[in-house]
Amino acid sequence: MPRQGPVTRSVAAGHSNAFGDRGRQADCYADASYARGKQAFGAATGKRGSDGDPKVAEVGAGSKKNRFAFVDITNKGRAPQRQAGNKDGSRNEQHLIPAKHHSLQQDLQADLQSRQAQAELDHSPNASSPASLQMAEPIWKDIDDPNCSNLMDCCDYVDSIMQTLFVSERQKRPSTAYMETLQRDIQPNMRAILMDWIVEVAAEYKLVSDTLFLAASYVDRYLSCRAIDRTELQLVGVAALFLAAKYEEIYPPQLNDFVFVAASTYTREQILEMESNMLDALGFQLTAPTPKLFFRRFLRAAAADLPRSQIAHLSALGSYFLELAMVEYASLSFLPSQQAAAAVLLALYTLQRQPWTPTLAHYTGYMPADLKPCARLLHSLFLMAPMSHWPAVREKYAQPSLLGVSTIPAPHILPDTLFFCL
C-alpha cells in the first residue's frame, strides 16, 4: 500500500501637581463645602453618629444601590431643622439654624492627619502587598477564556463536556482481555498488523486523526463482544474505518474506495453486511471518547506554561505516542484519558520541560504517580519504534509537516523522581 505524505491561551491615588497651589486650595475649599453641607443636612434630619457628628441620610432603600441625599447648595450654609412636635400633635414652625462653620485651617489639618494615617497603614507589615496578593491566587491557570470568540472552543460548556467524557470512557471501554477470553483465532500481533494498515489507509486518504482513533475504538469494542475468524479481521477494520469516516469526515471515502484498499478481498455486499453487524454490536453508540479527544484538552492545559514555540512540538510528539499505543494491544489496559495524560507527561519530559504542573493536575485529574504504568508503556514503545515490525506510525511522523518527531531520540530511562515531580 503506498503511503501518503504527512497527515495532515496598585495605582496610587493622588492630586496632580499640574495646577499648583491654586488646585490644592480649590480642593480644600471643595472638601470644606462638602463637610458643611453634610453637617447641615445631618442637622436637618436630626440624625447623629456615635461621635456626635451628623449622619447623611440614605434614600432609595428599595433600590439596588443606596443613594445619598445632600443639602441643596443654594441654602448657603443654612438648612431647615424641624423642632419636636407639640403634645397635641400640632406642628411647630420651622426655624433656620446656622450651620457650624469649619475654618480652612481645620480642614487642612484634618486632611494632613488622614494622609499620614493612610501612609502608615500602607507601610505596615500587615498591609496587603502585591506579593501576598499573588500568593493568594489559585496555583492553576484558567485555560478557558470566557470572552473567546471561537465557538469551537465551547468555553461555556467545556466543563460539562469533559465531565461527560470522563464518565463515558468507562461506559464505552472495550474489554482489556478479549484476546484471552473471547477470541480464539486471532492474536495481538494480528491486531497490530490491522492497526498498522488502518494508519496507512488513513494517511493515504488524508483522514483526520479523530477518524483513525474512532475506527480503532470500533474495532476493539466489536472484538470485545463478537468472536470472529482471522479471515474476517481485515473486514472488521474496513467496516470500522468506513463508519468512522462517515461520522467524522466532511467528504469521506466512498464504498468503492474501501473495496479498492482491501485489494478486492471483500465485496461491497460483505462490507455493508459487516457494517450492519458492527452497528448492532455497538448498539448504534458511535460517539466514543478517544485518547485524541482528551489529548487536545490536556495539550491546552500544558500550553498554559509553555512558550508558544514548543507547543507544536509537544502536540506532534504526544500524538505520535498515542498512535504508537493504538497499535499496541496492551494499551487497552489504560483509559483513553490516562493514555492522553501520560503522552503529555512523556512528551514534556522528552522536550526537557517541566513534566507536570498544577494546571495539568487540575484539568486531567491525574497526578504523575497515577500515570507511571502507562507512561512506562509509552516510553518502551518510543524506544522500540525504530525496530518495530509495524512502521506506519513511525514513517508518518518522520514527515516534515509533523516536525519529524519520530526521529527525536527517546530518553534512555524514566527516573522515579519524574512521577513525584509536583
UniProtKB/TrEMBL annotation:
Query: Does this entry carry the keyword Cell cycle?
Result: yes
UniProt name for this protein? Uncharacterized protein
Q: Which Gene3D superfamilies match?
A: Cyclin-like (1.10.472.10)
Q: What GO annotations for molecular function exist for this entry?
A: cyclin-dependent protein serine/threonine kinase regulator activity
The answer to whether UniProt assigns keyword Disulfide bond to this entry is no
Query: Belongs to which family?
Result: Belongs to the cyclin family. Cyclin AB subfamily.
Query: Which Pfam families does the entry link to?
Result: Cyclin_C, Cyclin_N
* Family matches, as PANTHER family: CYCLINS
In terms of SMART domains, this protein maps to:
CYCLIN (SM00385), Cyclin_C (SM01332)
Check the record and name the SUPFAM superfamilies matching this protein. Answer: Cyclin-like
Highest taxon listed in the record's lineage = Eukaryota
Domain Cyclin C-terminal per the UniProt entry, residue ranges = 289-411
* Any one GO biological process: cell division
Q: Where is this region: Disordered?
A: 1-23, 42-61, 103-132
